[in-house]
């Protein structure tokens, strides 16, 4: 009888510890590229400067094992970008609303330690807003390339680990 109780308690403890703290599960990988034109405004006061930008464009999913977004899906992006240069530090932040052709939406937050308008990498977070993306959650890395002739054009490639 003691062995049965010990076995049941051991099974309960191992099931409890296996499920504790694991609320997110892998939901696949997602890679996409966005391209758009950015309008930039900058204010400088002494050694502090603040830059804002509006970015609109389209994106294409290149590879995906994340069910709600298949390879070849087209997305629209509308972003507001900001950058603060102060005390020798530069922080970039962007918030984007992304829509698919059905009108379903997710948000994308991008952060980096560099100036707006300079190429480089950063980290991003995807969060569902509506429709099929409502429960979306993903962590991304991204690389940005700027082309500045006859305007400011931006191309960004994203690689994301999706959760649910």
- Give the rounded overall mean pLDDT: 87
Number of domains: 1
Widest β-sheet, arrangement of strands = 1-2-3-4-5-6-7-8
Could you say which overall geometry the principal axes of the C-alpha atoms support? globular
Structural Rg:
21 Å
Largest sheet: 8 strands, antiparallel, barrel
* CATH architecture annotation: Beta Barrel
What string, H for helix and E for strand, traces the elements in order? HEEEEEEEE
Q: What is the count of DSSP helices, taking H or I runs of 4+ residues? A: 1
**From the helix content, strand content and strand pairing, which structural class follows?**
mainly beta
Strand fraction band?
Answer: over 45%
Unreliable spans are 1-22
Helix content: 10-25%
What's the N-to-C terminus distance? 42 Å
User: What is the strand tally?
Assistant: 8
- CATH topology: the name is Porin
Name of the level-1 CATH class: Mainly Beta
């Amino acid at each position: 009888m003691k062995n049965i109780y010990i076995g049941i308690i051991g099974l309960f403890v191992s099931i409890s510890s296996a499920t504790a703290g694991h609320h997110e599960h892998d939901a696949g990988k997602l890679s996409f590229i966005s391209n758009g034109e950015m309008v930039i405004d900058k204010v400088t006061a002494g050694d502090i400067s603040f830059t804002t930008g509006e970015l609109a464009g389209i994106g294409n999913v290149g590879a995906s094992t994340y069910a709600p977004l298949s390879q070849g899906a087209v997305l629209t992006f509308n972003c507001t970008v900001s950058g603060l240069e102060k005390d020798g530090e530069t922080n970039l932040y962007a918030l984007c609303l992304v829509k698919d052709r059905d009108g379903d939406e997710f948000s994308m937050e991008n952060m980096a330690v560099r100036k707006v308008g300079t190429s480089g990498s950063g980290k991003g977070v995807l969060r569902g807003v509506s429709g099929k993306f409502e429960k979306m959650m993903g962590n991304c890395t991204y690389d940005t390339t700027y082309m500045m002739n006859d305007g400011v054009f931006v191309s960004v490639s994203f690689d994301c680990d999706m959760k649910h």
